Amino acid sequence: MRPAKCLRLGSPPPGSLAPARAQAAALRQPIARTISTTSNKRPHPSPSQLPGRLQAPYLQPHRRSFGLPSLSSFLPSGGGDNGNNSPKRVLTANRTLPYSPELLFKVISSVESYSQFLPFLNASTVTARDPETGYPTQAFLTVGYGPLSETFTSRVDCDPAKGIVEARSGARYEPKDGGSSASGLFPGANEGIFEYLSTKWELAPVVPGGKPGGPQTKVQLEVRFEFRNQLHATLMGAVEGQMAGLMIEAFEKRIRALHEGQ
User: Fold this and answer.
1) DSSP per-residue codes, 205-244
2) Cα separation of 39 and 71, whole Å?
3) Is 192 within 8 Å of 226 (Cβ atoms)?
4) Residue 208 and residue 80 in contact, taking contact as beta carbons nearer than 8 Å
5) Domain ranges within the chain, ordered by starting residue
6) CA atoms of 9 and 7, how far apart (whole Å)
7) What mean pLDDT is reported for the chain?
8) DSSP class of residue 34?
9) Shortest CA distance to 149 belongs to which of 168, 124, 122?
10) Closest of 139, 167, 168, 166 to residue 151, by C-alpha
11) What is the pTM of this model?
12) Candidates 3.30.1330.10, 3.30.530.20, 3.30.450.40, 2.40.40.20; CATH matching 90-260
């Protein structure tokens, strides 16, 4: 015979004790708390609040504009003859483009649009034109890089027959060889930071040579310049070697954009 089970009045049935024990065991365990922190998003700091090495991405405007004083304040006293013997610079770049010389000449002779696509040029304004051809003969150009920014007068020569457009600026300029000369002054030329600055575009059609396709034109860019003192030469030294290449690359992009937009 099995012994009779004795149940106390008011006691829970044996089967109901298991869940209670499990709950008690769970309560004795350490409580794992999940702390949720709310991130207070702050607005992006201004470039002036960032460390120097983080400022570059914030300082890439499409068009450079410097509200700086005239660079003449940096020039040593005594006029242009300051004892500077810095060498003359001659930078060249060339490229063959799949466009006609006539189309390319329209772009290089539109001096007023230079500031829209050429690097280091912040503003370009034509101030005089040939009454017969309508091509520009004089312009105000504002060159800028880093802390340098200066507006000066540029004499412009456009020769569609030879495919040449040349702009010459500077305190003293001799058209024959690009050298410094007292006889090379023209009105307003003594405003700039250069002894002289010559930017010459030259176009030449390329003989197809039996190759299929449209016209081909060789674009030659030559930049000649000399600074009035060593300070300007030092500031521009970091980029002067790339100047012509960047200019002709920007010119190619401009031509492509205009051609595709037709």
Assistant:
1) EPP-TT--SS--EEEEEEEEEEESSHHHHHHHTTTHHHHH
2) 48
3) no
4) no
5) 90-260
6) 6
7) 68
8) -
9) 122
10) 139
11) 0.59
12) 3.30.530.20
Contacts 24+ apart (CB under 8 A), 258-262: 258/107, 259/99, 259/103
Nearest to 68 by CA among 22, 136, 122, 18: 122
Q: Is the separation of the CB atoms in 98 and 214 below 8 Å? A: yes
Burial of 32 (0-12, 13-18, 19+ CB in 10 A): exposed
The model's confidence at residue 106, banded by pLDDT at 50, 70 and 90, is very high
* pLDDT tens profile 112-143: 999 999 988 889 999 999 999 999 999 998 87
Nearest to 85 by CA among 185, 190, 180, 192: 180
* Largest interatomic CA distance in the chain: 139
pLDDT band at 211 (very low <50, low <70, confident <90, very high): low
Residues 158, 168: Cα–Cα separation, whole Å: 12
Residues in the chain: 262
How are the residues of the chain apportioned to helix, strand and coil, as percentages rounded to the nearest 5?
30, 25, 45
Q: Answer yes or no: are the C-beta atoms of 89 and 112 closer than 8 Å.
A: no
**What is the tens place of the pLDDT at every residue in 4-49?**
554 444 445 555 555 555 555 554 554 444 334 344 444 444 444 4
